[in-house]
Write a structure and sequence with these properties.
By secondary structure, this protein is of the alpha/beta class. It folds into two domains: 173 residues, Periplasmic binding protein-like II (D-Maltodextrin-Binding Protein, domain 2), CATH 3.40.190; 160 residues, D-Maltodextrin-Binding Protein, domain 2. Helices cover 35% and strands 18% of the residues. Strands 1, 2, 3, 4, 5, 6, 7, 8, 9 and 10 form a ten-stranded mixed beta sheet that branches. Helix 2 links the parallel strand 1 and strand 2. Helix 6 packs across helix 7 and helix 7 packs parallel to helix 15.
Length: 366
């Protein structure tokens, strides 16, 4: 769910009200930095993350009150760009912790050695399917499915059945309707490329992208440019004159549109093609070179606490990894989890990602 998450997962258009009635009402939940440095020795740490990181007002302040640790958030572009910046500055890190790396870019960061191993005690509450680094250099925080979203109203008004599969997107009926993100910069863009590799195999996936190119696919740099500007189904896209009714985004985009509407509709204005989804897991880690390792580790614990996990759905529109975390009603009603998402092992992605991105660039942009 960095996109998205992003399920990346994430979609990340709205600034949510507090998930709990007040942050203090949540702070009694179990987990989260109880053994962190005390307020008698206050410290400030920096958290590097992508541009779509968001929390409820006062949430990080509650962490400060409990631990004496103040968190300064450094937003560094889309997930791919943020990871690249962390790697380029690893000898003189710009932050103490990093959040927002996902399984599509993970091996690049692990190979560069930018994270310190840390095993959070809160991992006992996280299913093993999300613990994708056995050395615990990074800690899973959330997950989501990167999928194609469709503008329900467009297809209704044009008396055209929306596509349902990846195969359908190359059908001439959907010519000039799809916008995607560049996989070199965008984690949801890369996730969708990986979905096509998982679907068509390493020998034939570029043939599929040739078909998409011939069918008028539009490529932009970031998720925000795709979803908030080019996609006709989002509120922001409609205001910006977006004319593409198909977009690479998240299975959690439908509840984001409902939640962000001035008057919440009974149904979401956008749908999700569940046959197109790639499972994205977002992770956090302590950056090597920090002088505040204990404080950064305490922040990781807090991000796995019920307090933080319960806050995530309505701020970043991702699913929490902590088992038993309650979800808000709009999320349970409108968010969907793909029953059979496309998957590739992080090691396979790591060995081939740069080659695949070059092949994609040669196929689609040249």
């Amino acid at each position: 769910m960095s996109g998205r998450s992003n399920v990346r997962r994430a979609t990340l258009l709205v600034t949510a009200a507090l998930l709990c009635a007040a942050v203090g009402a949540c702070s009694s939940s179990s987990g989260g930095a109880k053994a962190a440095p005390g307020s008698r020795h206050p410290v400030t740490i920096k958290l590097m993350t992508h541009d779509f990181f968001a929390t409820s007002n006062g949430l990080l302040d509650s962490f400060t009150r409990r631990t004496g640790i103040t968190v300064k958030v450094i937003k560094s572009g889309d997930a791919g760009r943020a990871v690249n910046q962390a790697i380029l500055t690893k000898d003189h890190p710009l932050a103490d912790a990093f959040y927002g790396i996902d399984n599509t870019f993970l091996s690049r960061a692990l190979d560069a050695g930018i994270f310190l191993p840390y095993t959070s005690p809160e991992l006992s509450q996280v299913p093993t399917q999300f613990q994708i680094d056995p050395k615990h250099r990074v800690t899973p925080i959330d997950y989501g499915d990167v999928c194609i979203n469709d503008d329900v109203g467009y297809f209704r008004d044009h008396h055209l059945a929306p596509p349902t599969t990846i195969d359908d997107l190359a059908d001439p009926r959907y010519k000039n309707l799809l916008v995607v993100e560049n996989p070199a910069d965008s984690s949801p863009g890369l996730a969708f490329v990986l979905a096509t590799i998982a679907r068509y195999g390493t020998n034939h996936w570029t043939d599929y992208w040739k078909r998409l190119k011939d069918n008028g696919v539009k490529v932009v740099s970031s998720w925000d440019q795709a979803y908030s500007a080019a996609f006709s189904g989002s509120g922001a896209g409609r205001l910006a004159g977006g004319d593409r009714p198909l977009v690479v985004s998240y299975a959690s985009s439908p509840p984001a549109e409902v939640f962000g509407a001035q008057t919440q509709p009974a149904t979401s204005p956008i749908g999700t093609l569940l046959d197109t989804c790639f499972r994205q897991v977002e992770l956090a880690g302590v950056l090597r070179g920090t002088h505040q390792q204990a404080a950064a580790s305490a922040l990781i614990d807090f991000m796995l606490s019920t307090t933080f996990q319960q806050d995530m759905p309505l701020n970043m529109f991702v699913f929490p990894v902590r088992q038993g975390t309650p979800l808000p009603d709009v999320f349970t009603r409108f968010a969907q989890v793909a029953p059979h998402p496309f998957l590739l092992l992080p090691g396979q992605i790591g060995r081939n990602r740069d080659t695949w991105i070059r092949q994609w660039t040669d196929t689609v942009l040249r």
